[in-house]
Write a structure and sequence with these properties.
The protein has six helices and eleven strands. α1 runs parallel beside α2 and α2 runs antiparallel to α4.
């Protein structure tokens, strides 16, 4: 799994200059206002190294021309704590502009690489994508000594998001956790559907508090939760 993750992140970085900033014990991911953030949930097929390298050699120059910037990835560090899905990696990339600009870039990418979807499915058995417009600068800093969980919620009624988010953050606080990345208002392009109403990467100092959070978060499922995916993540 570690080799797969390393190769995947290396190839993502081939698309553009690296934007994952490394300190001695931390990793920092920075997303800028006025961009669209792609969050990719990826599971690699075995024995696809050659296809992966060819994909990035082909798609890379086109993506760079369209001002795509990769921002590295998180590795999934264990089995799901809730839900039925955990990818190998969760990768980040940004495109300039808003959703309309993102749509235009996608159409230009397809025009030059019409078999894009087929190529992706040759390499990944799961290629889920959520896109977010970034209204203000976002910095996600992850400490190697701490513990992180990604939680994605789908609600029965999207109008309940504000109240549910407040309840989640209160529960997070009671387990000594901190929200490091919170995203709402996402969408998926056709064929890549993964559109949680709320996605949060949370941080704790120790595994005991993580366990408390896992138990406490299950109680939220009776508050209009349609589906949830929850799994541990870590910086590379």
């Amino acid at each position: 799994m570690k080799k797969l993750f390393t190769l995947a992140v290396t190839c993502l970085w081939l698309l553009a200059p690296q934007t994952l900033v490394a300190a001695e014990d931390t990793k920092t991911y920075t997303f800028t206002k006025g961009q669209v953030l792609d969050v990719l949930y990826l599971i690699r097929r075995p024995d696809t190294g050659a296809a992966l390298q060819d994909y990035f050699k082909t798609a890379g120059p086109i993506a760079r021309k369209l001002n795509y910037s990769p921002h590295g990835a998180l590795r999934v560090a264990g089995k799901p704590q809730q839900g039925n899905f955990s990818p190998d990696v969760v990768a980040f990339g940004t495109w300039p502009g808003d959703f309309a600009d993102r749509d235009s870039a996608y159409q230009q990418l397809l025009a030059e690489l019409p078999d894009l979807q087929s190529r992706r499915m040759d390499i990944w058995s799961s290629f889920n994508m959520t896109q977010y417009e970034i209204p203000e600068d976002i910095t996600l800093t992850m400490d190697k000594a701490k513990h992180y969980v990604l939680t994605a919620y789908w609600l029965e009624d999207a109008d309940d998001l504000g109240a549910f988010q407040k309840t989640f953050l209160q529960m997070l606080n009671t387990t000594s956790g901190t929200s490091k990345l919170l995203l709402t208002g996402g969408r998926s392009p056709f064929g890549y559907a993964f559109t949680p109403d709320l996605m949060v990467v949370s941080e704790w100092d120790n595994v005991l508090d993580v366990a408390k959070f896992t138990d406490a978060s299950k109680a939220l499922n009776s508050r209009g939760v349609l589906h949830v995916n929850q799994f541990p993540v870590a910086a590379p």
